[in-house]
Amino acid sequence: MEKSFGKLIRKARKEKGYSQRELAKFLGVDFTYLSKLENDRADYAPKEEVIRGLARNLDLDEEELIFLAGRIPQQYEEILKQNPKEMLALFRRMQENPEFAHRISQAATEGE
Q1: Which among 20, 31, 37, 79 has the fewest CB atoms less than 10 Å away?
Q2: Quick one: how far is CA 29 from the chain centroid?
Q3: pTM value?
Q4: Residue 111's pLDDT is what?
């Protein structure tokens, strides 16, 4: 089953016993915005600092959550900018060939 950003943060929030209002207050956002995030209905992905705040408060991996939200962590943006053709080719190949994507993923996570 594919994870969604909203489902993951809702599940983690409930496991921590936080209400939406409590967690929103920790993050400095309105609880209605947090509700939209949890329901995958926000008009735009949250800012990186909000995502990192969610991760810290919910004991989730910050970078994984950033990717799941549809953003790229700032430290990786420079790699993309320096190698745009290679990164585009890599992403296209991963999209077109799920087996290749799986092998790349496995290779990247070995030893973690």
Answers
A1: 79
A2: 18
A3: 0.79
A4: 66
